[in-house]
């Protein structure tokens, strides 16, 4: 692929409407141009690549056939929508993707009228599409709704709930199953393409209707035989039995990289206006058309900047191992000493580090697919039988399983261990992936122990603590990215539950950190010391149970206590305030108590450092607040 090749057709197609008078050959050239532009732009910015390359032809076909944005196209998750963004008037901004002030890496309603629904989590598209379709019908409007969902996203229960509802309602809705984990042998592919074109055609559907009418004149037993025969021939040839049982008319499989096949099927489905829900099974390949990505689609799902000619990614050398790798290493260590330890993830082996655990203990590692609810209750079942399940799920994805955490784990006080990765702000992935709420939603639960690692050594100790804790559920959170570079122990040691630690003693103010902001607190203490303000710095370690003795001591011995956490309000700081108020600690002292949390907002994508500065959680913000409060105290005393 030559990045310097002209993109004449793409230059012409500034908006989808510009594609609708193009010939088939021109559309094929447009797809080539679009693929080339996608590769070139992502090579300069980094981001999601493989999934977008897999849907280039599908993107062109959808915008050519359907009258977008009046017709709605919903991209499930949206990480595959870079070609869609380029084709819908955002080509001039595509090299700002995932950067501060630039385009989002996912679909976003505020960004474009062509983004019908925003999402960063999977399996929402059919539900949203059905809602739009029902609203359309209730309002008497006339437009199409197309939900594009991947085969991985189809493993989530929500997708089946939506399909079951759509089938029962009989509402017109088009679902495109983007299957990039299946191959079609050439003869089978040709036959399936022919059948798909046939069964999606109006003539077939009309003949099918006539056939039903004719069959209705036969005796009841023959009617049943005729109906069953037609159904089984079609679903056996095309593979749609499951979807048919959910009430969808199934078409496919169709080669998603062949516009000769895609266009007639989409046009047939578009023009058949009297149908209920239809599912088109489109087979694609991640990374299609770009050799390096085709040959290693797992490594090209999300990429850093790379060389277009070689595919070599320009990854900076880390200064310290990532928190995720430390978690995996520590869990392997614990599992070597305890045969009851098992690990569970929801289709995220690399992201959670459990690919390494799986290599060491394949029979004790479980990938449940994109099914976080099932993952948690599956872990609860394992715990019932005496095993020690570690359920490793990103903070933002654990939100999807909150009822299971409450109902299936916490109420029954089962010892499930929750390893919460990507806790806090996550940079370029933005608000849909930020782990902002786990402290608040977990500390609300009786029976739950909640920890946060301040550095990678602490993470090792918390893995060991979770392994040793068998009297109920326990959770520990850690951030995205590399560690702080602290010295690591040979193996983690269990911590005393509910006990924090003091790292620096001072007489004037106290900074009480929970989790990753400890390093910034220590920096702030140095800067405050230079200004004549003496600081104590403490690491709470636990948000539940609180180290009440430590909190009481800090309040009694300092004029100001500031809590700092990389989480929403209602979390650690709120728990400290609640304890201090109810214990009457603030009644007996002149100490001021303040909390620093993430803002009451959904922060846009940017670098993690800029997000943290914007949130007021870096050393500069801590120093500013401490200085202002100390000045106010001095002025009051002088008055």
**CATH H-level homologous superfamily name of the largest domain:** Thiamin diphosphate (ThDP)-binding fold, Pyr/PP domains
Tell me the number of structural domains: 3
Side-by-side strand order of the widest sheet? 9-8-10-11-13-12-17
Oligomer: single chain
Q: pLDDT average, as an integer?
A: 88
Strand content: 5-15%
CATH class bucket of the largest domain: Alpha Beta
The biggest sheet amounts to: 7 strands, mixed
CATH topology of the largest domain: Rossmann fold
What distance separates the N and C termini? 74 Å
Structural class: alpha/beta
Catalogue the unreliable spans. Answer: 183-188, 210-215, 635-639
Please name the defining characteristics of this protein.
single chain, 639 residues, alpha/beta, Rossmann fold, 3 domains, 7-stranded mixed beta sheet, 5-stranded parallel beta sheet, 26 helices, 19 strands, globular, disordered C terminus
Tell me what the structure shows:
With 639 residues, the protein is α/β, with parallel strands linked by helices. It folds into three domains: 249 residues, Rossmann fold; 155 residues, Rossmann fold (3-Layer(aba) Sandwich); 138 residues, Rossmann fold (3-Layer(aba) Sandwich), CATH 3.40.50.920. Helix content is 44%, strand content 14%. It is built from 26 helices and 19 strands. The strands form four sheets. A seven-stranded mixed β-sheet has the order 9-8-10-11-13-12-17, sandwiched between helices. It has a five-stranded parallel β-sheet with strand order 2-3-4-6-5, with helices on both faces. A five-stranded mixed β-sheet has the order 14-16-15-18-19, sandwiched between helices. β18, α24 and β19 form a beta-alpha-beta unit. α8 packs parallel to α12 and α14 packs parallel to α21. It starts with 7 loop residues before the first helix and ends with a helix. The C terminus is likely disordered.
């Amino acid at each position: 692929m030559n990045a310097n090749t002209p993109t004449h057709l793409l230059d012409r197609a500034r908006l989808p409407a510009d594609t609708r008078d193009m010939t088939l050959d021109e559309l094929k050239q447009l797809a080539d141009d679009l693929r080339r532009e996608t590769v070139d732009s992502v090579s300069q910015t980094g981001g999601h690549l493989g999934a977008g390359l897999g849907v280039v032809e599908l993107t062109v076909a959808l915008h050519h056939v359907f009258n977008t944005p009046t017709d709605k196209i919903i991209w499930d998750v949206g990480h595959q929508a870079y070609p869609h963004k380029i084709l819908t008037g955002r080509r001039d901004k595509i090299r700002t993707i995932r950067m501060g002030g630039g385009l989002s890496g996912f679909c976003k309603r505020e960004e474009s009228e062509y983004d019908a629904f925003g999402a960063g989590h999977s399996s929402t598209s059919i539900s949203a599409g059905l809602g739009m379709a029902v609203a359309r019908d209730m309002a008497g409007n006339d437009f199409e709704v197309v939900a594009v969902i991947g085969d991985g996203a189809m493993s989530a229960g929500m997708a089946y709930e939506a399909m079951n509802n759509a089938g029962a309602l009989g509402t017109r809705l088009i679902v495109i199953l983007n299957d990039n984990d299946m191959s079609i042998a050439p003869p089978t592919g040709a036959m399936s393409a022919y059948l798909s074109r046939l069964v999606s055609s109006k003539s077939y559907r009309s003949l099918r209707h006539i056939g039903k009418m004719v069959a209705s004149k036969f005796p009841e037993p023959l009617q049943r035989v005729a109906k069953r025969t037609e159904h089984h021939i079609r679903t056996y040839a095309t593979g749609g039995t499951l979807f048919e049982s959910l009430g969808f008319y199934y078409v496919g499989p169709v080669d998603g990289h062949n516009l000769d096949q895609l266009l007639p099927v989409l046009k047939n489905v578009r023009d058949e206006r009297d149908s209920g829900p239809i599912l088109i099974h489109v087979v694609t390949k991640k990374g299609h058309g770009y050799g390096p990505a085709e040959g290693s689609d797992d490594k090209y799902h999300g990429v850093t900047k790379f060389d277009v000619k070689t595919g070599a990614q320009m990854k900076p050398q880390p200064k310290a191992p990532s928190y995720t790798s430390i978690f995996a290493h520590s869990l392997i260590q614990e599992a070597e000493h305890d045969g009851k330890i098992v690990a569970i993830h929801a289709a995220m082996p690399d992201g959670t580090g459990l690919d390494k655990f799986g290599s060491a203990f394949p029979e004790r590692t479980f990938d449940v697919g994109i099914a976080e609810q099932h993952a948690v209750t599956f872990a609860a079942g394992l715990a019932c039988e005496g095993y020690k399940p570690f359920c490793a799920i990103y903070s933002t994805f654990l939100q999807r399983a909150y009822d299971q955490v409450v109902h299936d784990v916490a109420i029954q006080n089962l010892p499930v261990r929750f390893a919460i990765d990507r806790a806090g702000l996550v940079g370029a992935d933005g608000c849909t992936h930020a782990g902002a709420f786990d402290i608040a939603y977990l500390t609300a639960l009786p029976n739950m122990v909640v920890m946060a690692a301040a550095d990678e050594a602490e993470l090792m100790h918390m893995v060991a603590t979770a392994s040793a804790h068998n009297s109920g559920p326990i959770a520990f959170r850690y951030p995205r990215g590399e560690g702080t570079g602290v010295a690591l122990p040979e193996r983690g040691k269990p911590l005393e539950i509910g006990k924090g630690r003091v790292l620096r003693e001072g007489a004037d103010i106290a900074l009480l950190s929970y989790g990753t902001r400890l390093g910034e607190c220590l920096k702030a203490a140095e800067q405050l010391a230079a200004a004549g303000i003496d600081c104590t710095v403490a690491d709470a370690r636990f948000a539940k149970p609180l180290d009440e003795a430590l909190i009481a001591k800090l309040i009694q011995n300092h004029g100001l206590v500031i809590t700092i956490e990389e989480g929403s309000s209602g979390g650690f700081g709120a728990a400290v305030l609640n304890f201090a108020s109810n214990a009457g600690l603030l009644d007996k002292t002149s100490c001021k108590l303040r909390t620093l949390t993430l803002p009451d907002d959904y922060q846009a994508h940017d670098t993690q450092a800029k997000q943290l500065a914007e949130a007021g959680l870096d050393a500069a913000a801590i120093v500013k607040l401490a200085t202002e409060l100390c000045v106010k105290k001095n002025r009051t005393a002088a008055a």
